Structure prediction request, 96 residues.
Amino acid sequence: MSNSSIKTFTEIEIDRIIEMAWEDRTPFDAIKFQFNLNEADVKKLMKKELKFSSYKLWRERVENCNTKHAAKRMEGIDRFKCKLQRAITNNKISKR
Prediction:
């Protein structure tokens, strides 16, 4: 991870970062906002935490997903989470 984001994450935080990274509608900007990890740091974390085959599948999915990068998103999609997703405030996850 880069010097700007050196932090030890709890197991719950790592699980949440991985969950957000797998979600198609959650942009890297949301992960940056909540955990201060840029896209490169998320990729490093995913490579470290996932099996190699899972990491490859995730990378292929991210490269083909227009909603993971804010610049590629369709106009009108400007939220970090789906309306149906549980309420999430900063790093706290409710109702788990």
Remarks:
- The helical segments are 11-22, 28-35, 39-49, 52-63.
- Residues 86 and 94 are 7 Å apart (CA to CA).
